[in-house]
Design a protein that fits this description.
Helix 7 crosses helix 8 and helix 7 crosses helix 9. The strands form 2 sheets. The protein has a 6-stranded mixed beta sheet with strand order 1-2-10-7-8-9, with helices on both faces. It has a 4-stranded parallel beta sheet with strand order 5-4-3-6, sandwiched between helices. The protein has 2 domains: 217 residues, Rossmann fold, CATH 3.40.50.1100; 107 residues, 3-Layer(aba) Sandwich (Rossmann fold). Helix 8 links the parallel strand 7 and strand 8. 44% of the residues lie in helices and 16% in strands. The termini are far apart.
Length: 334
Amino acid sequence: MRRKEEASAMKILESIPKISLGCYPTPFYKMKNLSKKTGLNLFIKREDLSGLGLGGNKIRKLEYLLADAKQKKCDVIITTGAAQSNHAMLTAAACRVLNLEPILVLKERGVTSLKGNLLLSKILDSEVHFVDTDDNEIVNAKIDLIMKQLEFRGKKPYFIPTGGSVPLGVLGYVSAVFEMFNQAEHDDVRIDHIVCATGSGGIQAGLIAGVELLDKSVKVTGINISSNKELPKIVANLSNGAFGLLSSDKNITKEEIIVRNYVGEGYAIPSKEGTEAIKLVARSEGIMLDHVYTGKAFAGLLSLSEQGYFEKDENILFIHTGGVPALFAIDAKF
């Protein structure tokens, strides 16, 4: 019965409109030097090498979301996020590939000068609107106003929420789970534990949904790099939304979601532990992490290991979600 449900979900997933934007499969391999240094069996999934822009996990979500936009004959894409949002920049890059106009509505917080992702968004000729607030309701009101103005001009806008974290976008990471387990099987590797950064919740939700659909006994730990205390509820709702789209009767409760908080002083504020993790991974494997997401996520993984969180001989898969442009925007002491 489980195999039948898995096959049914995969068939439905394949039937949902999707536009190819990335270069897949992304690399999957063991981090041999770090494994020796830490005493852990560490593997990595290189979502930072997904092709579009400077790569990143959001591309998988955008393949489904922008297919939906095109199917609805929309011609302008509006999205939102922090000033240095990877998602916003990658949305702009994807829009240029698909001849859509990108509009980015960003919170005027953190680094707002022409660095990092804002520089890339400028190169992509994105229309950027800053909103001087931390209040999402004020941001959404600004977005509503822009959409009404576009409609008045005869345009047809399509809105993508922060991080593309809606059930349709989450399907990108259900698909990624199928991909990574195929790679692991090919390499004769057993995946026991997946660790990823979690902010808007979409990637963790997709990983959990995919693992459940494949009926794998694999733990998915999200390292919270935001200050959102509602993440377990958000992730559960997104996973369940993905199950619904795939006609699965599976259900996840918020109590089953594993989230560990390593945000430090705040979102996008470099932490000492995150910076040390960036240096360790770079100097051991030649892989670049960032201060906002992956640096803190890997620091969280190391901290959890020191606490005895992982089982002996577990194969731990770290998801590199991208975000390298932040290295060129955020000041941090190395």
